[in-house]
Design brief:
mainly alpha, 3 domains
Length: about 170
């Protein structure tokens, strides 16, 4: 770009209103250079002494690092467990899991990619005497879980049907 162009880089460096921003950037850059690029053993000892580790060997620093990592992992595990415990339990999902467990005990484990409709059809085909109950439970589950049916009475009926199923 020509020097006389208003958008030339050289013209920006001459702007007086940009001077404070340029000086601030230079100060940040200088601090970075001194702290990160100029990090040496004496600076390391200075940082460690602020944590109470005046003459720390590599073994001591390794143990300290392991302790810090273990504390972080424990804190994360506690947060995950607390989140899991705080999650509300859906009685419909719990009852459907119980339904699947009953069928698995009687020789019909639910396949990982098998939806409720396909699972019910497979069980009904193998056990026609239980087809009506399995179909009713599966249809009600689908309506409660995926449809517009969200009544408390329907959910209680679903839980009762699952508990009454003897297969």
């Amino acid at each position: 770009l020509p020097a006389h162009d208003a958008f030339a880089l050289a013209s920006f460096s001459e702007q007086t209103w940009l001077q404070p921003a340029r000086l601030t950037w230079d100060a940040v850059s200088n601090s970075w250079n001194q702290w990160v690029l100029g990090y040496d053993p004496s600076r390391q000892l200075q940082v460690l002494s602020s944590f109470g580790l005046q003459e720390a060997s590599w073994q001591t620093m390794t143990v300290a690092l392991i302790i810090v990592v273990a504390l972080i992992v424990l804190a994360m595990a506690a947060m995950l467990l607390r989140q899991d415990r705080a999650a509300p339990r859906d009685p419909v999902v719990s009852a459907y899991r119980m339904f699947c467990a009953k069928l698995a005990k009687s020789g019909f484990p639910r396949q990982p990619a098998e939806g409720p409709r396909d699972f019910a059809a497979r069980v009904a085909e193998a056990r026609p005497q239980h087809a009506a109950a399995v179909d009713a439970i599966s249809r009600l589950y689908i309506d409660l879980r995926y449809g517009a049916l969200a009544e408390r009475a329907a959910a209680e009926r679903f839980v009762r049907l699952v508990k009454q199923l003897n297969i």
